[in-house]
Protein: Glutamine--fructose-6-phosphate aminotransferase [isomerizing]
Amino acid sequence: ILDSMRGRLVAENSHLVMASVIEFENKFKNADRILIVACGTSWHAGLVAEYLIEEFARVPVEVEYASEFRYRNPIIKEGDIVIAISQSGETADTLAAIELAKSKGAMIFGVCNVVGSSIARATDAGAYTHAGPEIGVASTKAFTAQVTVLTLLAMMIAEKRGTIETSTLRQLMLEMEQIPTKVEKALQLDTEIKVISEIFKDAANFLYLGRGFNFPVALEGALKLKEISYIHAEGYPAAEMKHGPIALIDANMPVVVIATKDSSYEKIVSNIQEVKARKGRIIAIVTEGDAVIPDMAEFVIEVPDTHEALTPLLSVIPLQLLSYHIAVMRGCNVDQPRNLAKSVTV
Ligand code: F1P
Structure:
């Protein structure tokens, strides 16, 4: 299974500027630590990667905004691997973070979409995401492609380090094969989400909550809404809600909760109860067939079942659609949002 995965990654990259994943395998195997630098949506994909790599490969991972990393004096040791993630491959902050890490002896692995871009050229090795051009400024399919590549990478590192059971690896790979069909199914939620968007299009604020692998998805859902509809939105780890954001919840607050069936399901159900008790308007993203949450949430959006570690690939889709429809209904230009550049090169 792993050989076929390597084959796929390498085949995609063999004719390109970046070195193959195989050449980097031993470096990943022996790394004491992995740092991930990125901005915006790519940073959220990096957070998913942190959860995946630490869960399966048991290597410490730190994820940092490149825009912060480049301006401080981070501790970087020789032998550290830095994964730089960028859709455009031209983001100035990410490029500067790479140069800083390189000057201190780190090896750089890139995850880029644009072939031959500045970031791709500045890295020692990497994998292209091949998501195709992002027509709009806000990243959407790039996120899915980044998370896919990073999931494969996490599995490869775990296999190399011997930290993953063969049966788990096999299960993940088989589930991975099903993802394109399940993504198609999730995209069919479009009409349903349009109806929900109509109801909430005039909201002044939104709160997004998620746990585990879906915490970064909550951040991404909030970012997409901000970027294209100009509605203020905050993403939080669901358990962090009680440490502050709970004060914001009232009958005017839409709360999007990613509550797919996973190891934190019981806990997220109790988070939903807390929101409901304060009359928050709950839009829950659940796993198909969920019998509990429909009795609690005002709106329920079902996504196909998959392995817990792969849920971000499906749960992000309804959030992207929600932002898209709300933005269109508010008369916003979804492809060219105000103040946003496709590549932030300064
Ligand atoms: C990073 C990013 C995007 C965002 C917007 C501005 O870009 O923050 O995530 O949607 O386009 O730039 P990149 O480094 O992934 O190209």
